[in-house]
Amino acid sequence: MRSGLTAGGRKAWWASLVVALAVTTVSSGVGPASPAPGPARIVLSNDRDISNVDPIAISAPADYSVAHLVYSALVRVKPGTSTLEPDLAEKWEISPDGLVYTFHLRKGVKWQQNLGEVTADDVVAHFQRAASKESGSVFFNDLAAVKRIDAPDRYTVRFTLDRPSPAFLTSVIAYRPGLIVPKKIIETAPGSLKTTPVGSGPYAFSAWHQGADVILKANPDYYGGAPSIGEVDIKVVKDDQTALLALRRGEINGRYLQIPEVQRAALASPDVRVLRAPMPRTYYLAFNTTRPPFNDVRVRQALWYGLNRQGIVGRMFQGFGTFSDTMVPPTVVGSLPGIMYNYNPDRAKQLLKDAGFADGLPGKTFSLLAIGLQDQTDIAAVTQDNWRALGVNVNIEILDTPVFLQRVRTGNFDIMDFALLRTEPEQFLVDFFHSKNIGTTNFSRYDKADGLLDAMRFAGDAKQRIQGAQAVQRQLQRDAPQIPVLNPTLMLAVTPKVAGARLELLVYNVWQWSLPK
Amino acid sequence: MGASLLTVVVGATFIFLMVHLMPGDPVAALLRDQFSQETYAVVSARLGLDQPLGAQYLRFMRNVATGRLGTSFRSERPVGQVVAEQFPYTLQLATAATVLAVALGVPLGIVAAVHRGRPADYLTMGGALIAICTPSFVLGLGLLLVFSFQLGWFPTIGAGGGGPGDTLRALTLPAVVLGLRSAAVLSRIARSSLLNVLHLDFVRTARAKGATDRAVLYRHALRNAVLPVITMLGLNVGHLLAGTAIVEIVFSRPGVGKLLVDAVLSRDLPQIQGTLLIFLVIVIVVNMLVDLAYSAADPRIHYA
Amino acid sequence: MGAFAAVMSAGLWSGPREVIRRLTRSGGALFGLAVMSGVLAVALLAPVLAPYDPVRQDLLNQNLQPSALHWFGTDRLGRDIFSRVLWGARPSLVTGVGAVLVGAVQGSVLGLLAGYYGGWVDGLLARLVDTLMAFPLYLSAIFVVAVLGPSQLGVVLAVGIAVTPAFARLARGQVLEEREKEYVLAARAIGGAGARVIVSHILPNIVAPLLVLASLNIGDAILVEAGLSFLGLGPPPPTPSWGLMVNDGIVVLTRAPWVSLCPGVAVALLVFGSNLLGDGLRDALDPRLRGQG
Predict the structure, then answer these.
(1) Distance between CA atoms of A32 and A207, rounded to whole angstroms?
(2) CB contact residues (below 8 A), chain B span 238-257, against chain C
(3) Does B135 touch chain C (CB under 8 A)?
(4) Residue partners of A114: CB distance under 8 A and separation at least 6
(5) Which among A241, A17, C246 has a CA at the least distance from the CA of B251?
(6) Cβ contact, residue pair A1, B214, below 8 Å
(7) Which of A43, A23, A45 is nearest to A34 (CA)?
(8) pLDDT of A367-399, one tens digit each?
(9) Rounded to 5 degrees, what are φ and ψ at A325?
(10) C251:A374 CB<8 A
(11) ipTM of the complex in this document
């Protein structure tokens, strides 16, 4: 009799399965429709979705990677290099005193959506908007040095600065706020730029499926000629590990990989091609220099000597990275070369003894804040282990980003574990070590380099700027408000058939890509 | 109805307080790379975060009363619209997972109960336990490695989009990961409640009167064992809405679960509030339905 | 209170000796009991049993395969996985049992009251539970962890609060069923006070499904902890928590599967044991199943 019941159960099971299939098939009608994949379609992937692609409000690499394809700037970084090349401006001049920048626009460049020709009026309107606090710009401070923007004629734009600014081209004109928006849209519907950008770049924005992907279509009127790749689909894949699987299966064609363990796997995969270079990103530890015992420079230096950075780079990061004694990565202009703090536990103990802590700091536990990303928690775990050997105990607190930033901004921590991605020495140094930024980005509350920092940011020329930057770095090396831990590797992985890909800072030069048969 | 409205008001207040008392700095999280002294104050004022909490609360409740849920800090798009866009993906996933759970779980639970103490019972319950004790991100990644990467049966990322076939293929593995767990839970609940009922007097009486086992099972026992199963399904609704987050992240799918976790991790306050409020309404509605199903399944219960 | 109190009162009701006798007659329950006692013993004896310091790193010996030296191999930081799994029994057991206790106590009390009294009490409590249920497990967990900071207490409370509605609704549903039965109607008719009727008549009879749920949720708590680690909100290093360890090894899953697998099996074993024990307890406690074992 029991077997009879089993048969009944089996029948019920099959019936349910049929229902399951029916329901899932019926419900499968939803979802973004995308055309059948053709040969000229490329799928890229970012680890985050876009949130706001209005150039004056871009605050994350994913947003920039989309805006960078839709818009043009006056000048841009030549893909795969660190030199500048013409974009909308055919040529440009800088006055000998470094105060006047004049750009001569390319003629006949067309806005997408038939908005007419790109003219000097557009450029002026764009930068005025970027410089205004009311527009929602997050770059108004970067444009604070600009006294006047004007257009002597239809194809000439002139910026007059209050003071020389050696980083003006690279940090403003060829960077996020430098992507030019049409004046017509600024006047009619600037709000629409957040999610539906219109520019003059190689690709036109086609659709955004939030949480899934962004679709871009080649701009046939692009001044550089219509791109070979007709459609670009930028998909959100949060996890590097999954992204690599999708790459190897050919479901995506390009992705920046950032987790060392995955970089290692990508390098060993025959079915992907990788491009790699040092990345201008610095993982670092910062002390709250107002809290004892970290207000004592000897203690900070001791802990720097006591951190095995070779071990972290070689073992935790699988050799995908380098380390230096400065916040400014070696690939960024003005970086200070040379390493003073080689791992030396004996030296560390001596310094602690000099500071009056011959036995370390037993009985005390200091907070070490970290964001719960594996690379950063790994660094925290190794730090904890290294310093325990010196008799300095830390309690790691894993926090989410908003809480972390709140705690470090308000100085509610002893040591913090963080990473910065920047392109200019000023961005690494002024923002994080000038006393005017205590309460926001000067987390370590260090206030002893203001003079040197001001000399650097108001430097008259490139040479003075580099000298100024190095003077700041030498002082930070000596005073040790922070410990630069390592600079990781930037890796772009593409499917083997992709040609023309260049390594850039988390953006894609797709207009130069092709898929040869 | 009035009680439900009250729940919404109490719930909305609770949600507002919870969201605004949550530690963390929304402005710093929003500004990310462009976080500086100067931008901080400007953005803080633009988001209205410099106003007193009471004023913010009144504005929120006034908006709720008129059906507006505000705009997201991050994308500055209407919160309701964002949720509406993401919802179909989660509904797909949750429906497929629930169907799978019931289709697998209940019959297996019955088999186990009927064969209590025999190999079929141990096998079924053992399988259920393995499904229960594997974290969904491990199971998800494991299935991805085998079925998507090695065998190439399913896509590795995304929710499909090329047509019903594509969508179904993209839905399979996530639904299995989400549904397997519920199936395991359901099978255990079904088994234990059926075992309870099988020994009750009316079942014994029915048997004594000469009813065959199958007839007893279907006519009497199963109907009475269905209550706890309905309870479990009702409970699952909340979990299926945002509990999908990890599955959505592992399989790179859009959906409200991921939306909500992202909103929380970036302190997109209007987005968190609006999404939770919508969840609350859905949970209330589903639970009213569950209560109705209770009464239908067991006439002795009258839901007031 | 909650599940354990229910066990106690149910035990008193049908006699503790009887319960133990029935428990020991079921193979599954015995196995579950053995596993749970084993985990408890390991948790207590970890300092004696563990061959290495569970937090000592050795970056020169990362991801070593299981060997005579390291029975379960080493993890990404070169720590001995066997020692970490042994030490990990403590936080895992505390998380699992603690969370279920919190949830079961709150949930059962709410559900019993709502189901027994009905009317406005039921309405009010139902609204409360509905609101709680709108906050799914991970969200409550993220919120509580955000408020309390990343700690074990945070996870325990978060999961406890998150599983409360499940207990509440289950208890309510069962009470609705039970309260219409003759023995309860009789107890009420002869003037039994509410609390006494609940504790002495209803509770023992609804303990079985509650126990099943509790046994399932012990595992849930550990899994949520793992999920929180996946979202970057888990307990901080160097805590040798099983959930954290599973997540930590995911990135080397194809290269060094033992890093995730060993703590994963430990999680599975604990969940398995608690479930079997739960089943056994249910059978032993339920007077209606007497003699049917």
Answers:
(1) 9
(2) 238-239, 241-243, 245-246, 257
(3) yes
(4) none
(5) A241
(6) yes
(7) A43
(8) 999 998 889 999 999 999 999 999 999 999 888
(9) -95, 10
(10) yes
(11) 0.85
